[in-house]
Amino acid sequence: MKIFDYEIKNRFLALTGLLIIISLVFIPDKYGFATRVFCGVLGFICIGISTGNKKFISEAKALFIIVIIALSVKVTLLEAYIVPTGSMEKTIMTGDFLIGSRFVYGMRTPNWIGIPYTDIGIFIPSVRFPKFKEPAVGDVL
């Protein structure tokens, strides 16, 4: 018997994919939509690899790369926001969708690194990247 049996590997990947997809129900909202998308794609990739379908595997790899690029842009350059309250109703209505640039006023690194879905982690000093522009009077931040 081989140490890495092909069928055992396929069953493991299929089970891992199913567990990841099922865990999407239990991911707390504080981890956001991006975490759910990443876990969903990862789960489907695991299930697809376990089937051995070469077309699915190549498409899953392409989808995975697209998701990584999209999440990188979201984390570093742009962020989508929804206006939660009516405190700015003269200029912005409740429920409006906004795209904000993280890059113009200087990005910050996360100040917490830890294990996802737990409170286990460490706080680190936050680093702020150089700014291209200082906020001016009348800018909406």
Structure, explained:
This protein has helices at residues 6-23, 32-51, 54-76, and strands spanning 78-82, 97-101, 112-114, 121-123. By secondary structure, the protein is an alpha+beta fold. Strands 1-2 form a two-stranded antiparallel sheet. It has a two-stranded antiparallel ribbon with strand order 3-4. A hairpin with a 6-residue loop joins strand 3 and strand 4 (121-123). It is elongated and about 65 Å long. The chain starts with 5 loop residues before the first helix and ends in an 18-residue tail after the last strand. The model has no long low-confidence stretch (mean pLDDT 74).
How would you describe this structure in keywords?
serine-type endopeptidase activity, LexA/Signal_pep-like_sf, 4 strands, single chain, 3 helices
Which oligomerization state do the chains in this entry correspond to? single chain
Taken in chain order, the helices and strands follow as HHHEEEE
- Cα(first) to Cα(last) distance is 63 Å
Strands, total number: 4
Poorly predicted regions: none
User: Radius of gyration, rounded?
Assistant: 20 Å
Helix content: 40-55%
Task: Report strand %.
Answer: 5-15%
Strand order of the largest sheet: 1-2
Compute the number of helices: 3
How would you characterize the largest beta sheet?
2 strands, antiparallel
The shape is: elongated
* Average pLDDT, all residues: 74
- Provide the structure class: alpha+beta
Protein name: Peptidase S26 domain-containing protein
InterPro entries: LexA/Signal_pep-like_sf, Peptidase_S26
Pfam family, one: Peptidase_S26
Keywords: Membrane, Transmembrane, Transmembrane helix
